[in-house]
Write a structure and sequence with these properties.
By secondary structure, this protein is α/β, with parallel strands linked by helices. The chain has 2 domains: 370 residues, Aldolase class I (TIM Barrel, Alpha-Beta Barrel), CATH 3.20.20.70; 62 residues, no CATH class. The chain contains 19 helices and 12 strands. The strands form 3 sheets. The protein has an 8-stranded parallel barrel, surrounded by 7 helices. It has a two-stranded antiparallel ribbon with strand order 1-10. Helix 2 links the parallel strand 4 and strand 5. The two termini are 37 Å apart. Bound molecules: flavin mononucleotide and iron/sulfur cluster (SF4). The site of iron/sulfur cluster (SF4) has 13 residues, from helix 17 and helix 19. Iron/sulfur cluster (SF4) binds next to helix 17 and helix 19. It comes from Nannocystis exedens. Pfam families: Oxidored_FMN. GO terms for molecular function: FMN binding; NADP binding; NADPH dehydrogenase activity. Its cofactor is FMN.
């Protein structure tokens, strides 16, 4: 994973924990309405992919155990991981693209209700994504994937000063490029082709020559709406439309979206499909189901959207009836690290990925509450329009005082913690009971995220080797790690 060049190793700040009485009177543990849903507290576990679904995208006993474990800590809301809305094979990524996924998801809902005593509201994050292929071996790229055209011939002839390349047999041209020096490839291949060679093929929302990409505005509202209806049928309290990070909807919102078909270029054009998806979802689910989104306060990539764009979009979403806006940052493909040959590029490995899940190896600002200013600005803009849409802040949240200060300052309405909740799924409950001193505190070094990057079952270094002799313990595929945190014995 990328770290800032002048990194400083930050210490985890000491934490003061409140008594049960102070917690009960606090902002963080006070209720809030998220559209039609009342949260008993403003505590929130954001989406985290744990790589526990079956290869067909179905809920497994391990998926259920993962969410039940978070629910035992009774957060105000728990968001189920990014879940694919299409009925297409996508490996062990949870899916909701067909009715056969509903029974498993309904069992998950039941398990969360039981484990939280009905206190935790359960949302599911709905995602669409475009194709990403593994980085090809160069010989395969030049022999098969490169689509040779007159432009390649012209540029090669000019670079070599040899017109023979204008009509040389294609196999000869391919072989020549395969053994060419990088300088020549720079002259002959397009930027896109060089990226495909170095990082693997990746579809973009601007690929209007691809019919299925051109058709995204026609098909996505219905796909999202059908997925939301299934979530409602399974018993979820709401859906979180995934408009953040590296995926299709964030790419529509991005300043890099130059689609010329009315779904790009301008702020209004870029927001059009996300608003149409919201309208379709709203029309399909009942009034009792919350519909919110996760979006980026800043893409943190060259030429990408920044806070000004995000504020504009959040105001538009709030105006169109979004029930909550959960603010994240970065997490893009554009600046991701180069994968090894045979592996696929992963969006959380570059500087923008760092901003999404910052570690203690940080710059002078450090990782803690690093992204709160984005949520604060977005919230202020929504409030200036006279709207009360709750805004969720996340990123480096690790203590009661920190969350309380964010709420007191009006920087967010709900304070979320992903990694701290993974480190200790009981931490909200411990704080509420006045037993904060027992919280197992996250180290913010991203052992968990390294597992995620490799699509391995996500666990936490603080508990995955503990009490391995527990009877009937579910373990990782290699048998070495437990899959959920040990039970907290009160
Ligand atoms: C293992 C892992 C998986 C994640 N998966 C998702 C995801 O599916 N959807 C999403 O929006 N964010 C995802 N995130 C990002 C978190 O929701 C959160 O925004 C980020 O970790 C920063 O918050 P934190 O500092 O409290 O961990 C993931 C984070 C981790 C560590
Ligand atoms: S693995 Fe590390 S960063 Fe991840 S939750 Fe555990 S302590 Fe925190």
């Amino acid at each position: 994973m990328w770290t800032p060049p002048d990194k400083i190793r930050h210490a985890i700040p000491p934490a003061r924990w409140p008594s049960a009485e102070e917690a009960a009177a606090s902002r963080w543990f006070s209720p809030i309405d998220v559209g039609p849903c009342r949260l008993h507290a403003r505590t929130w576990v954001p989406a985290m992919v744990p790589w526990r679904a079956s290869d067909d995208g179905l809920v497994t006993p391990d998926v259920i155990a993962w969410y039940a474990r978070f629910a035992a800590g009774e957060p105000g809301a728990l968001v189920v991981e990014a879940t694919g809305i299409r009925d297409v094979p996508s490996g062990p990524l949870l899916r909701i693209g067909g009715d056969r996924f509903v029974p498993g998801l309904a069992a998950l809902v039941e398990a969360v209700r039981a484990a939280s005593g009905g206190r935790t509201r359960l949302f599911i994050q709905l995602i669409d994504f475009l194709a990403v292929k593994r980085r090809p071996p160069p010989d395969k790229f030049f022999a098969r994937f490169l689509r040779v055209d007159a432009g390649h011939r012209r540029r090669l002839a000019a670079a070599r000063g040899d017109d023979r390349w204008l009509d040389a047999p294609e196999p000869e041209l391919r072989a020549h490029l395969m053994s060419a020096e990088p300088g020549l490839l720079k002259q002959v291949l397009t930027d896109r082709e060089r990226r495909e060679l170095d990082y693997g093929y990746r579809e973009l929302v601007t690929d209007l020559d691809l019919p299925h990409v051109r058709d995204l505005p026609r098909v996505l509202p219905e796909l999202f709406a059908a997925a939301a209806a299934r979530a409602e049928a399974a018993g979820f309290d709401g859906v979180e439309l995934h408009y953040a990070h590296a995926y299709t909807m964030a790419s529509f919102l991005s300043r890099t979206n130059t689609r010329g078909d009315g779904y790009g270029e301008t702020l209004a054009g870029r927001a059009r499909l996300p608003l149409e998806v919201l309208a379709a979802v709203r029309a399909r689910v009942g009034a009792g189901t919350a519909v919110g989104c996760r979006m980026l306060g800043d893409e943190v990539i060259a030429g990408g959207s920044d806070l000004a764009d995000a504020t504009h979009f959040a105001r538009a979403f709030a105006g169109a009836g979004m029930d909550f806006v959960s603010v994240s940052k970065g997490g893009k493909f554009d600046d991701a690290q180069q994968p090894k040959v045979g592996e696929a590029v992963y969006p959380y490995t570059g500087p923008s990925g760092y901003e999404c899940m910052p570690t203690i190896h940080s710059d002078a600002r450090g990782p803690f509450a690093r992204n709160v200013p984005l949520a604060a600005a977005i919230r202020a803009a929504i409030r200036a329009d006279g709207r009360t849409t709750p805004v969720v802040a996340a990123g480096g949240i690790h203590s009661f005082d920190q969350a309380e200060a964010i709420l007191a300052a009006g920087h967010a309405d709900i304070v979320a913690a992903a990694r701290q909740s993974l480190a200790d799924p009981d931490w909200f409950l411990k704080i509420r009971l006045g037993r904060g001193a027992e919280v197992r505190r996250c180290k913010f070094t991203n052992y968990c995220e390294a597992l995620d990057t490799q699509h391995k079952q996500v666990t936490c270094q603080l508990w995955d080797r503990v009490e391995l002799d527990e009877p009937d313990l579910a373990r990782s595929h290699d048998g070495r790690r437990r899959l959920v945190a040990p039970r907290w014995r009160r």
